[in-house]
Each structure stands twice: as structure tokens, then as C-alpha cells.
User: Which sequence fits this backbone?
């Protein structure tokens, strides 16, 4: 069953085509009737040219052009166009010979002089055909542009939706991973009945607050991300006591710099989780710098050479997130030496809030 939209489209097409061909009929009557006082003759002549013009036009725009010209089969297009031209000329000449055009009116006084010239008749018909074909190609080109834009928009929306779903999936993996590490730390203190357990729980609540309410945002202030890192480091200091040595250097040029939340924490987690105590201490050094719209983050921890850091879930996921969130705008270097493991991350095109946005 034909839908209402399809039926309406057909009706509009029929009406618009009818109006166009009526206009062409009056075009023929006006120009071919120049110098003639025989209105009946001019109408008869114009009426005869209409079927020939319509057939040639529709043959071109609905068969030859879509099947041969637009598919780049130029040889067949030219060949069939020549056939159509010869056939149309033959029909016009045949009609003249059998008196279908002129009949008795040819002998009458007042007939249009232009209608007695065969080349002009053929030229007039194909002038109209050229107009029809040109309009058809313009409409086809416009429809193709609109169709391609709609298709590109659909593809872009699908890619964005897929990207969003993948990012959510990665977040779902990163957050439990981070929470699991933190709970393990608190559990260890609870078993020892350490006095630090209440303070650790408070720190953890701050971390959870950040995860639940800030991480869903596309970006946060870099300082908020840094505070999140400091809370996490505080937890680790309570766990390691005197066996941990942490140095943090920060040079944040613009306090309004923004970054994707939870983009740095997996590197810090891996430093503590996979780091090794060398000569009585686990040493972790962090450097965070921003200049303009660029961020440089470096973290180094003491380690054992045989430890395979790059198999960590957090580290693998953060690489994927970086590819998706900062495509062609980041660089990550991982270096493992005899007693140290270093990650260097550079991010370009950081968002910078202006003063109005920051209020």
C-alpha cells in the first residue's frame, strides 16, 4: 500500500511537470507564432511539437542520463543520444510529409514563417530539451548533495554514538579498577586496626564523589584533576608509610585549563600498583606542566625490570581513551629501565575556560 507521503510526492511531481509543459506549450506558441495571424494554426503546430519534445526529454532524463551518463558509460550515452536525435528528426519530417503539421493551413495566408523552416523547428525542439535536461541535472545534483549531507550526518551521528558508548565502556572498566585498588588498601588497614582507617575512608569518599559527579562531564578544571590525584597519593602514603617517597612538581600556567576527567589517574595507579621497593623505598616522581594549550605529564616509579606494566587494565584503557578523546593531539612514551618505569604524556589542544565561563 502506498503511503501518504509517497502519494503526495507523486501528486506534486505530476502537477509540477504539468505546469512546466504548459509553460513550454505557450513558449512554442509565442515564438513560433511570431508574424502569424492564424491562431488556430499556431496552436496546432505547437501542440504537435509537444509529444515529440516530452518523449525525447523523458527518454534522456529518465533513461539515458541515469543509466549511461551518470554511470560513466559515455560511449553508449552518445550512441543512444544520436539514435534518439535521428529518430526525432525522422518523426518530424514524416509528419511534415503526411501533412500532420501543415495540412491545409500551410497554404493559408497568415501562417508563421518560422514554421516553414525544418532546421529551425528541430533547433527549437532541442533547445527546449536542453533546458529540460539542464534543469534535471541541476535538481539531481542538488538532491545528491542533500542526500550525501544527510548520509554524512547519519554516519557522523553513528560514529559519535559509538564513540560515546565505547568511552562509557572504558569508564566502566577504569572506575571499578580504581575503586578495587582503594578498597584493598583500606581493607589492609582495617585488618591491622590502624588509626589511619577513618581518615582513609574520608579520603576515599572524596575520591568517590569525584568519580560519581565529575567524571561524567566531558571536561573538568585541571586543578580538580590534580586535587583528585593528591587525594589518591595521600591514601597510598598511609599504606606505605616510611617505605614510600613521593615528589610532585606542578607548573600550571593557566588555572582555567581543562582536561578530560580520570585521564591521568590510571598512570598514577599503575605506578603504585606495579612499582617495586628498591633499596628500602618505593619512589614515585610526578611532573605536571602546562603552557598555553599544551600539557606535559611525566611519572616515574622504581620497579623491577621483569615487571610487565603494560598489561594493566587501566593503562590499556587509558591508551584507548586518549586515542578517542585526543586524536592526533597527544603523544605517550613508555620507558622501562633496570630499576625504573617512566611514562611521558603530552596533550595538545587543551580547553581553556574564559572568565565568563568560569563564573
Assistant:
Amino acid at each position: 500500500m502506498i503511503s501518504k507521503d509517497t502519494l503526495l510526492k507523486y501528486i506534486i511531481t505530476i502537477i509540477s511537470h504539468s505546469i512546466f509543459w504548459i509553460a513550454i506549450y505557450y513558449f512554442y506558441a509565442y515564438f513560433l507564432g511570431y508574424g502569424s495571424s492564424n491562431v488556430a494554426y499556431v496552436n496546432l503546430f505547437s501542440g504537435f511539437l509537444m509529444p515529440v519534445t516530452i518523449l525525447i526529454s523523458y527518454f534522456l532524463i529518465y533513461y539515458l542520463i541515469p543509466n549511461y551518463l551518470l554511470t560513466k558509460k559515455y560511449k553508449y550515452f552518445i550512441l543512444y543520444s544520436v539514435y534518439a536525435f535521428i529518430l526525432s528528426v525522422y518523426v518530424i519530417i514524416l509528419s511534415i510529409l503526411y501533412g500532420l503539421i501543415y495540412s491545409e493551413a500551410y497554404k493559408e495566408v497568415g501562417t508563421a514563417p518560422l514554421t516553414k523552416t525544418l532546421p529551425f523547428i528541430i533547433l527549437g525542439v532541442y533547445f527546449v530539451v536542453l533546458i529540460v535536461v539542464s534543469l534535471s541535472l541541476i535538481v539531481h545534483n542538488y538532491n545528491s548533495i542533500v542526500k550525501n549531507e544527510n548520509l554524512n550526518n547519519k554516519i557522523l551521528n553513528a560514529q559519535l554514538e559509538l564513540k560515546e558508548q565505547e568511552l562509557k565502556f572504558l569508564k566502566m572498566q577504569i572506575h571499578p579498577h580504581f575503586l578495587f585498588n582503594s578498597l584493598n588498601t583500606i581493607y589492609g588497614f582495617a585488618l591491622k586496626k590502624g588509626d589511619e582507617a577513618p581518615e582513609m575512608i574520608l579520603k576515599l569518599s572524596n575520591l568517590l564523589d569525584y568519580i560519581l559527579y565529575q567524571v561524567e562531564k566531558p571536561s573538568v578544571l585541571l586543578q580538580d584533576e590534580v586535587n583528585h590525584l593528591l587525594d589518591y597519593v595521600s591514601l597510598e602514603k598511609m599504606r606505605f608509610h616510611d617505605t614510600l617517597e613521593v615528589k610532585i612538581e606542578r607548573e600550571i600556567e593557566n588555572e582555567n585549563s581543562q582536561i578530560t576527567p580520570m585521564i591521568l589517574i590510571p598512570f598514577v595507579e599503575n605506578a603504585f600498583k606495579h612499582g617495586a621497593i628498591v633499596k628500602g623505598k618505593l619512589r614515585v616522581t610526578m611532573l605536571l606542566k602546562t603552557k598555553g594549550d599544551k600539557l606535559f605529564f611525566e611519572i616515574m616509579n622504581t620497579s623491577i625490570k621483569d615487571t610487565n606494566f603494560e598489561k594493566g587494565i587501566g593503562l590499556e584503557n587509558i591508551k584507548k581513551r586518549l586515542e578517542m578523546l585526543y586524536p592526533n593531539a597527544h603523544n605517550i612514551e613508555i620507558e622501562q629501565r633496570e630499576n625504573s618505569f617512566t611514562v611521558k604524556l603530552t596533550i595538545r589542544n587543551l580547553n581553556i575556560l574564559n572568565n565568563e565561563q568560569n563564573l
Remarks:
- The radius of gyration is 40 Å.
